[in-house]
Write a structure and sequence with these properties.
alpha+beta, six-stranded antiparallel β-sheet, Multidrug efflux transporter AcrB transmembrane fold, Alpha-Beta Plaits
Length: 736
């Protein structure tokens, strides 16, 4: 099949390049509109109780989000006459603004908790619905900044989301501006040829433009997260460089073996194209499992990631061979002086020595590596989870400024309370009894209800019905707490509030940020096992089709889990416990469950990517009758240099994300880069050959029925015998 594809590509090379040029123009046009179509939400499970409570809040009380206006006196305190007048004027302006509902001000409400402990700042809060980014930006432009004797900074979840979105867009340009020239330089050093180095960059450029176009189309059809831009662009660019590196290296090997340009291109498609096909399939399978999650944040990465991998694979296996068949030996044009005598078909002495040493003493080589990786995984035992807020931004953003000011100067204000919506016919006495029972719960500092305030089971004072907390048959109960909303105690409190019996005649929905965090954690946690099982089964099938062995896929899955455990443990150490936070400039926080799931899935796919790169080369030698030990050494000595170079190039693309000013984007970039480098060195260089050496003759074992199945459906094309490189001499290896 791949041989026929290779011949067709060679015959129609110019037509393929013309079609690619037209597609590239289309990609550029479509991709130019991408940022206006993507959202910054999508972290919530729409079917959860907290999300349904948010719908009721938006329907009856103007929204489930708050804007917080931090008003700071230029001189004096917030009680001076000029500052009070400015505060009241701002409150009046907000009450007339149709975009906000029920503004509550220190000056109009006389609420002492809305005054900072030093007296220099005060708060105005206003409930809002789901405003567009333009509307939020307009509010920022209209109300923030200097207003006579006061300055105003605006925060809240919507402002934080907008500022994160804007930062992500900016970070994309910065990361690619750094990654592209560095990768280009390294490709030049790897290949020692200017033309050979430019070809993977060409595939990377096609993939980036194709990624933006795919995201633009997807954003018109369904909800897509803005965070998909940075992550999938870095992933697509890095993988396309990897694929281009593999194709170019194989093509140069075939030329060095005496093949013509056309034959070399066909052989490259047949052998390297097969490897890329399996590699892309493993990453696609991993990404596809994100579809089991209800959050569109994760689902959008499945849509976008699969599209990106498809573009990278087609570019590398169709467009690039067309180019290679036309340029032929000119691929070596612009060689560095030291590279002119280098034969691309030669093996790597370093990787050959490493593989030979590991095969001789597999236990001595593997045990220290396993101990290091298991030690790196130990911080996972103390992991805590949270939802991202404005603290993921740098300290200069207005939402971060407001959030930090509230945490430092307003100890009695809970801007992220538990919000309970009652709907039904319950009378005032029943609502009061419900609010009183909720206020008795440990960790509750106060309850605001339509019938008054409660604390410690006491209250309310005689008060008229508060019109801002009741609408039709809906009543809003706001439950304040002094617990850290990222803590287990806060999650327990949400469950306790949900366990309080509803007033007779009413239904209860418990929402707010603490409840959203709990429900999102549950939505991810409940689906982790099915997701892992799907990945494991699909990966097992793909690797079985590649190798014809039952034990090789199991060995690969075990090594991947060990490597991913080490990667996730290091992320806990860095981003939760704060190791290195001063260098990267982030605030240590509990880790977001959705981003951790994304990191796990993509890192798993990339790890299998290198598994396929190395194992396919070992299998190629094994299929030619080379003994297993010799096949491992031969395969690693020929693929190790390319795998390590590919991992370094992909890691640079991903590490560029670590320069982001959004901490969970930093975590993803650094985490995937560490996973890739760890996999390409410790796991593929040491644990893989050690594992095969320990398995011995059983490494390629499969039950008879499965062997028949593999002979029928497995792909086992190898290079032509005429161009195949002879195995290393028998005396240089350890036989089984």
């Amino acid at each position: 099949m791949l041989t026929r594809l290779g011949h067709r590509i060679v015959r129609h090379a110019r037509t393929i390049l013309l079609i690619a040029a037209v597609a590239l123009l289309g990609f550029g046009f479509a991709g130019s509109t991408v940022f206006g179509k993507l959202g910054s939400q999508g972290l919530d499970d729409p079917s959860s109780q907290a999300s349904r409570a948010g719908v009721e809040l938006a329907r009856n009380f103007g929204g489930d989000s708050q804007l917080v206006f931090l008003v700071t006196a230029t001189t004096g305190t917030v009680d001076s006459p000029s500052v009070k007048a400015a505060g009241l004027a701002l409150t009046t302006d907000l009450s007339r603004d149709s975009r906000v509902a029920t503004p509550v001000s220190y000056w109009s409400a006389g609420a002492p908790q809305l005054r900072s402990s030093d007296g220099r700042s005060a708060m105005i809060t206003a409930r809002v619905g789901l405003l567009s980014d333009d509307a939020v930006q307009d509010i920022l432009d209209q109300y923030s900044g200097s207003r006579g004797p006061v300055s105003v900074a605006i925060g809240g979840s919507l402002v934080g989301s907008l500022q994160i979105k804007n930062q992500v867009s900016h970070d994309l340009l910065v990361s690619e501006a750094i990654a592209v020239p560095v990768i280009g330089l390294l490709l030049f050093l790897v290949f020692g040829s200017a033309v050979a180095a430019l070809l993977p960059l060409l595939i990377g450029g096609i993939t980036i433009l194709g990624t933006l176009a795919a995201l633009s189309v997807l954003g018109s059809l369904t909800n897509v997260s803005i965070y998909a831009v940075n992550v999938t662009t870095a992933l697509g660019f890095g993988l396309s460089i990897d694929y281009g590196l593999l194709m170019v290296n194989r093509f140069r090997e075939e030329l060095a073996g005496g093949a013509t340009s056309a034959d070399a291109a066909v052989s490259t498609v047949r052998v390297a194209g097969r490897t890329i096909g399996f590699s892309a399939a493993t990453v696609v399978v991993a990404l596809a499992t994100l579809l089991v999650f209800p959050q569109y944040f994760l689902r959008s990465f499945a849509y976008a990631g699969i599209s990106v991998i498809a573009i990278a694979m087609l570019s590398a296996t169709v467009v690039l061979p067309a180019v290679l068949s036309l340029i032929g030996a000119r691929i070596n044009t612009g060689r560095l002086p030291w590279a002119r005598k280098h034969n691309p078909a030669t093996t790597s002495v370093l990787w050959k020595r490493l593989a030979t040493g590991v095969m001789r003493r597999p236990a001595w080589a593997a045990i220290p590596v396993l101990l290091v990786l298991l030690t790196a995984a130990t911080p996972l035992l103390g992991i805590t989870f949270g939802s991202p807020d404005e603290q993921v931004l740098s300290t200069s953003g207005s939402s971060r400024v407001v959030g930090d000011a509230l945490r430092a100067g307003f100890p009695n204000v809970d801007t992220r309370p538990i919000q309970t919506v009652l709907t039904g016919s319950a009378d005032r006495a029943a609502v009061a009894d419900y609010a009183r029972r909720v206020s008795e719960l440990s960790g509750v500092t106060g309850v605001q209800s339509p019938v008054g305030a409660f604390a410690g089971g006491k209250g309310p004072q005689p008060t008229p019905l508060d019109p801002t907390l009741a609408h039709g048959d809906a009543k809003l109960i706001t439950v304040s707490t002094d617990l850290d909303i990222h803590s287990q105690a806060a999650e327990d409190l949400v469950n306790q509030v949900r366990d309080v019996a509803a007033p007779a005649g009413d239904q209860v929905l418990v929402g707010g940020d603490p409840a959203l965090q709990l429900d999102d954690k549950t939505a991810v946690g409940d689906r982790v096992l099915p997701c892992a099982l799907i990945i494991a089964l699909a990966t097992f099938i793909l690797l079985f089709l590649l190798t014809g062995s039952v034990l090789q896929p199991l060995r690969a899955l075990a090594l991947n889990l060990i490597g991913l455990g080490a990667t996730l443990g290091l992320m806990v150490l860095i981003f939760e416990h704060g190791a290195g936070s001063a260098v990267l400039g982030f605030t240590p926080l509990p880790l977001d469950t959705s981003m951790l799931m994304l990191l796990f899935v993509i890192s798993f796919g990339l790890s299998m990517d290198y598994e396929v790169f190395v194992t396919s080369r070992i299998k190629e030698a094994h299929d030619q009758g080379v003994p297993t030990s010799e096949a491992v050494i031969n395969g690693l000595s020929r693929s190790g240099r390319i795998v390590s170079a590919a991992a370094l190039l992909l890691a640079i693309s991903l590490c560029a994300l670590a320069l982001s000013r959004v901490s969970f984007i930093q975590m993803f970039g650094l985490g995937t880069a560490i996973a890739v480098l760890m996999d390409a060195t410790l796991i593929r260089g040491i644990l893989l050959p050690a594992g095969i050496r320990i398995l011995g003759r059983a490494a390629w074992w499969a039950p008879k029925p499965l062997r028949k199945l593999h002979r029928r459906f497995g792909l086992s094309e190898t290079s032509n015998p005429s161009t195949a490189t002879p195995p290393e001499p028998a005396h240089s290896v350890v036989h089984h």
